[in-house]
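pls read this protein:
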Amino acid sequence: MTTEGNTPWLMWGSAQRVALRNDNFVAQPTATTAQLAQIRYGRPDSWHFFFQVTILDLVGAVGAAQIQVDFNLTFGVGRATARVPTFARFNFNSALGELVPNFTKQATSTEFGPNNPARVGPNFCDQIVAETIQCDISASFPTGAGTLIEGTGIQCLSFFAPIVHVRPEWNIEHFPGNEIHGH
């Protein structure tokens, strides 16, 4: 049961500052990770999402640097779950003028690869069906982009919301999430 101060949507999104590591001089660079959302809705629903990445601090010479941020989702209904690594990817490239403080990219949809070789149109996704959702990010400097150093910071943000938000307890005028006190 949800109590005041513990509303159900507290874990439906967040913004986190992430300090990137730079280990490009090894064969397999390690990405910096962070969890942004953990949803346990209690019943299946269709969900919209919003992802955003903002460059905060750049430490070192920008040169030919790149930053890559992957939003990874694990979602499920009942006893089944699906893990979709790189559900959405954001690439920031200094050659395109994207590695400057406050440069921001966002998305409310993503495009998957073709699901068969004959597909000629895009394979867009702007909603998911789920009862549980976990969103985490992996952020890294792609191999060979060693001009930026450890301490370069980004802000990653994810929001999720059910497309239709009707809760059964509202029919009995019971509001455990304190949602009638909004502004």
